[in-house]
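Exercise 4. Each item below gives a protein and its sequence. For each, produce the structure-token representation.

Item: Probable RNA 2'-phosphotransferase (Methanosalsum zhilinae).
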Amino acid sequence: MIRKCSKHGYFRGEECPQCGIKGRYVLDSEREERLGRFISGVLRHFPREVGLKMDDEGWVDFELLCSLLKSRYKWATRERLISLVESDEKQRYEIDDSRIRARYGHSVDVDLDYPDNELPSLYYGVSQEEVDMLLENGISPIRQTYVHLSTSYGKAVEVAQIHTENPVILEIDAEKARRDGMSIMDANEDIALMEYVPSDYVCIFDGR
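Answer:
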């Protein structure tokens, strides 16, 4: 459920996490999920199929998207789309004036323009069956334009456990990769993006 606090803006849940007030109702959980699924598809995978033009950096026209939503779901107001974006703890989307885009997760070709990542190490969780292959061949995108790396060990574990019970965490030598001229971008505070991670920069995280 999405609600709005008059002081702290949109939030998900029953009470504002900052001040504890209940706030104004904006969107129920079922419609939040339906709207989120559709927005994810449109901004990451099939903009052209629904009649939206996406530029090279993944942006589409915000008002056109609002009109499209309204034609599909009578309840999908402009405010509800904004609330979905601003209350999302995973920072999946961003609005810039008259444009909106997904911050990561694209399967369509995009040329994102985020700031350079400056962390010395990044992390990637995999199943035990995948480890040897990735250590030998490097990490390539799977159904996405970029490899999504975690900025912390804990986040890598959290993401990997969605797919496997006992993940192995790989460590990426981001500092060396940058020295060698490879581009690494920050999508948000938890996710960094690379087009491909060569095996030279990948090892099993040893906990040190």
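Check: The first strand starts at residue 2 and ends at 5.
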